[in-house]
Amino acid sequence: MPESPIRKLVPFAEDAKKRGVDVIHLNIGQPDIKTPRVALDAVKNNDIEVLEYSRTEGTEAYRDKLTSYYKTRGIKIDSGDIVVTTGGSEALAFAMGCIADPDDEIIIPEPFYANYNGFATAHGIRVVPVASGMDTNFALPPLAQFESRITPKTRAILICNPGNPTGYLYSKDEIRQLAAMVKKHNLFLIADEVYREFTYDGKIHYSILQEEGMEQHAIMIDSVSKRYSMCGARIGCLVSRNMEIVRTAIKFAQARLSPPTFALLASEAALDTPQSYFDAVIEEYSSRRNHLIEDLRRVEGVQVAMPQGAFYCIAALPLEDAEKFARWLLEEFTYEGSTVMVAPAAGFYATEGLGRNEVRLAYVLQKERLRKAVRILDVALKTYKD
Ligand SMILES: Cc1ncc(COP(=O)(O)O)c(C=O)c1O
Questions:
Q1: What pLDDT digit, counting tens, does each position of 271-303 carry?
Q2: How far is the CA of 261 from the centre of ligand 1 (A)?
Q3: How many CB atoms lie within 10 A of CB 198?
Q4: Minimal CA–CA distance to 330: which of 11, 8, 13?
Q5: What is the pLDDT of residue 31?
Q6: Residue 4 pLDDT > 90, yes or no?
Q7: How far apart are CA 132 and CA 110, in angstroms?
Q8: Angle at 213 between CA 208 and CA 216, to 5 degrees
Q9: CA-to-CA distance for 330 and 53, rounded, in angstroms?
Q10: pLDDT per residue over 293-348, tens digit each?
Q11: How far, in Å, from the CA of 20 to the mean position of ligand 1?
């Protein structure tokens, strides 16, 4: 199993904290946004006497209510198209298990959410990357590059939209191009849409489930973790109109019995969260993004693409090995008692050597904290000897 590049520096951060250093975490996507009150209240105020297993694919009530939520996002599905999972993570693992046998291949534009590597490895699947780059803001690479990598073992193309770690939001046109390609080659298109709500500058997310003619090909991955700042609830889902996929995913789900019952209650209640909550959260993230990117662009030698969604960006640093630098930040450097923790980006690429000078930064902290973090990075880059 590959180690999570996001978590492998944690022991160094813990040591720094023990030495009294204030570590500013730009490395993980744990939002500081409050979970909606309705969700927390549903767990507090109930008269459950036996905390039973729930239904394998999630309660009827929750799946029904989810269909109404998706309708508000322009996605028309039935409750029978949904398998509720223990986080989007489990939905990703189920999706891979459903479509591929050991030695099969999945094509993924890189950089990508590093845990895709872990899920693929667990299923014996080979990840075949197609590189996207900072020069195009990490847009969809030309289709020819995907097509040149399709082999008899290719089962799917996996995208993350909006992207972690790139913040790139695929346009309707890009989704259409991908849809046409997977139909032509009879592949699945798996779209990880866990950041659907977080799009900026008035841009609108286009789901693969909105694209007609994709009934047999589309598998969508979702989660309450980011939408309602409920990462600890561990509820997500897999959605597909392809009933063979749904039936197979349910078999995987039966093996782990059920999703967590309390978290289901919270997730069902969270669906009553008013739009005003999202408006405020999106405004907050958008303003944090603007501050962070503006500040980073002022740091000598740093290059950063403008994210249009999610809450991450990839920054290229003026050095060779960002992992060494990230470790040095935690082990040897402080500025006015603080340092920053970043996620080295090489672990988000499958191609050896790519992303070595890049880091992923998450803007899930208050603006003042983000400002301070960039000041520290600036001084650190001037001090560091590569
Ligand atoms: C792109 C992406 N997909 C899936 C997940 C998994 O989320 P969870 O298992 O908390 O739903 C994450 C978590 O950070 C993510 O960034």
A1: 999 999 999 999 999 999 999 999 999 999 999
A2: 20
A3: 24
A4: 13
A5: 87
A6: no
A7: 6
A8: 80
A9: 43
A10: 999 999 999 999 999 999 999 999 999 999 999 999 999 999 999 999 999 999 99
A11: 31
Nearest to 108 by CA among 94, 122, 124, 96: 96
Cβ-Cβ contacts under 8 Å for 16 (sequence gap 6 or more):
23, 330, 331, 339
Q: Which atom of ligand 1 is nearest to the CA of 89?
A: 9
Residue 137: partners with Cβ closer than 8 Å, 6 or more residues away: 166, 168, 305, 306
Q: How far is CA 9 from the centre of its chain?
A: 19
Q: Which residues line ligand 1 (CB under 6 A)?
A: 29, 87-89, 113, 160, 164, 192, 194, 223, 225, 231, 236
Q: How confident is the model at residue 1 (pLDDT cuts 50, 70, 90)?
A: confident
Q: What mean pLDDT is reported for the chain?
A: 96
Atom of ligand 1 nearest to the CA of 163: 1
Q: Indicate which atom in ligand 1 lies nearest the CA of residue 160.
A: 1
Mean pLDDT confidence for 67-89: 97
